[in-house]
Amino acid sequence: KYYGNLYMSLIYGEDVECVICNEISNQAVIVSTNVFGSPDLDTRPPEMERSNIEYEIQRCPSCGYCSSDLSKCHENTKDIVDSQRYKTIIANDLLPEVASSFLALSYEYEQNNQMGDSVWSAIHASWICDDEEILEASKNCRKQALSLIDKAGSYEKLLSDQVGATEVIAIDLMRRVGMFSKGLKLVKSTKVKDVDEVIFKVIDYEEKLIEMKDVESHTISEALDEK
């Protein structure tokens, strides 16, 4: 099945056998895509990749297993998928199905102590809710991502090997949910680290946005605009 040329992205459907329950379902697979423009401060990509985020995750229509590839899993994934917590996450009809799928994947990563991947999956869920304009849900997904960062216990190399990069993401999450005091505190502690010029400029821009109590999305190019 050919899903079409979406914003010049090639997306096809292929039959995938679920590694958990052996159900075969047709799933969308991104063959190629492009990006034009600047990512958001939380690294959300610009179009055309932005419109393809929903195709980055697959859900088995039989058992509900969610993954970037239903044919693969960790050795304890079946127990996670069978858990009541997992079933509750995927059954949440207050969220778009893709968002709940990302949150289910986040939970699986968390149970496997893959905290960085768990955080990113929760952030992806927030992006889906942004598009559906379900603002409270998008805030809750970002709060979940922040909770996972706290659970990881360290910013170092959690979301990126670059010094200060994880802190930048956390600051933006805090700003977007209105946690201004906590965001400013992290701004101050990160500015004194040995971060490169781009990271410093983004942090400085985040500080200005927080001072204005701005909770809207902004791009990296805005932060780097010398004017």
Please provide a brief summary of the model.
The protein is of the alpha+beta class. It has helices at 77-82, 84-90, 97-111, 115-131, 135-152, 165-176, 180-191, 197-211, 220-224, and strands at residues 2-6, 9-17, 24-32, 58-59, 66-67.
Portion in helices: 40-55%
Query: Per DSSP, what share of the residues sits in E-state strands of 2 or more residues?
Result: 5-15%
How many strands, what sense, and barrel or not for the largest sheet? 3 strands, antiparallel
- What gross morphology would you assign? globular
Sheet with the most strands: spatial strand order:
1-2-3
Distance between the termini: 48 Å
Order of helices and strands: EEEEEHHHHHHHHH
Number of strands: 5
Give the overall average pLDDT.
Answer: 92
- Count of individual helical segments: 9
Radius of gyration: 18 Å
Based on helices, strands and strand pairing, what is the structural class?
Answer: alpha+beta
- Catalogue the unreliable spans: 1-7
Helix-strand layout with pairing:
Blueprint: E1 2-6, E2 9-17, E3 24-32, E4 58-59, E5 66-67, H1 77-82, H2 84-90, H3 97-111, H4 115-131, H5 135-152, H6 165-176, H7 180-191, H8 197-211, H9 220-224
Antiparallel strand pairs: 1-2, 2-3, 4-5
Helix pairs in contact: 2-3, 3-4, 4-5, 5-6, 6-7, 6-8, 7-8
Overview of this structure, please?
With 227 residues, the protein is α+β, with helices and mostly antiparallel strands. It contains nine helices and five strands. The strands form two sheets. A three-stranded antiparallel β-sheet has the order 1-2-3, with no helix packed on it. The longest helix has 18 residues, at 135-152.
